[in-house]
Structures are given as structure tokens and as C-alpha cells.
Amino acid sequence: MGLALLIKTFLVQAFSIPSESMQNALQKGDRVLVDKLTPWFGGEPERGEVIVFHDPDGWLANEPVTEPNSVQRFLSFIGLMPSSEEKDLIKRVIGVPGDTVECNGTGPLKVNGKALDEPYVFPGNTPCSPDEGGGTFKVTVPDGKFWVMGDHRQSSLDSRYHQNDKNAGMVPADEVVGRAIVVAWPPTRWSTLPVPETFDQPGLNAALGATPGVLGLAGAVPLVLWRRRVTARRTDG
């Protein structure tokens, strides 16, 4: 039990995908491993990473609580999965502190004036949704917060649709659980979750976000660089 608690608190934790909002990178029912280590070294989410975070301000207020099966209850008991009572979400980070994120009509989605090439967006979806609920927007991300969006753009109630909450649709840093790094279950869908190349394009860092402390950066850089260079793709086609 002590080892499980240590793993849950400092290292990794499993998370079950509750919806289709991150298709096709993640399917409903997939289980991912979430890295909780980097935040302890002063790191913060980066653009393109898939993160798990606590409900910032009632995003899941109208969502039913799914009754866990016996396996999920056991994993929750030993600390390897969150309790079914915890309301967590999973989305992709699009904007970090200092970024200007915008989308008009059906897209493209732009960060600091640079259009993103988004092959991870669900087939048939457009990068943005020309609706009145928040599908088109222009926002600047404040310090300590992040703008997140689902890959299944027309089926994701993400930052776009919560701009009237207390965080203006942003996810506070202290609500972030960690970064999803691996699809661990089912075995046929095993894959890593690397940062898409579009987030490395020149000029995207026109507005730099908050910089972690020197000590924190020294501890986080090796792990972050290793993960960002992972290019493995799904082996199940």
C-alpha cells in the first residue's frame, strides 16, 4: 500500500478516458498513464501536451457519475486510479501563459499569429466551430493558466465553451494533475502521446510563458526533452 501511495502521489497514475472528446488520439474507455513527476520539479504543461486536470469550475456539473467496475474500484483502492467521485478531464494544451489563441470561422487555429497544422483533429471536424457558444474566439492566456481543447473539436466542451466561468475558460496550473504520456490499455492500442510537430514551428514562441525556476528547470529538462522527442506512433493502425 505504501508503494502504491508513493506512485499515486509523486510518479504516475492511471486515468480512464470518459468521453469521445479526444478522439482519435484517445478513445472512450482507453486507460492512459499520467506523469505526475514533472510538476514536482517546477515544470508546467507545454503546448501540444495532453493533460489531465481537475474540473476548474463546474465543467462536468451536468455529467452523470459512472459507476466503476470491480477492476476500477480495486485500482482506486490501492491508489493507481482516481476515485470515481473525482471529476477530472483530459484535453490538449493549446495556449500557455502569454499566448494569444484565436480562431475564426472554421479555422485554422492560430497561436501567436501562427496557424497550426492539426492532423490530430478528428476526421471530418474543422479546427474551429462557427457557432455562438464560443467556437470562434481570440483570447490571451494569463499567468498560471492554460487554454485547452479536445481533438474532437465538434464534440468537446473545452475552454471555448466555458469563457464565462471564473477562470474565463482557462485551466489553473494548480488544477493540473499531470501529463498523459502513454495509452496503456487495451494492449492493442498501446502508444505514446508525443507533442505534435506543429508546436515546434519557428515563431510560435513570440509570447513566452512563465519560466520555471533554475533548480526546477534543471530537474525537469532531461525528462521533458526525452518525452518531447518520442515519435513512436500507434502500432494498431
UniProtKB/TrEMBL annotation:
Catalytic activity of the protein: Cleavage of hydrophobic, N-terminal signal or leader sequences from secreted and periplasmic proteins
Ranges that cross the membrane: 206-226
Membrane topology per record: Single-pass type II membrane protein
Subcellular location(s) per record: Cell membrane; Membrane
Keyword Hydrolase: yes
Superkingdom of origin: Bacteria
Keywords of this entry: Hydrolase, Membrane, Protease, Transmembrane, Transmembrane helix
Family: Belongs to the peptidase S26 family.
Protein name: Signal peptidase I
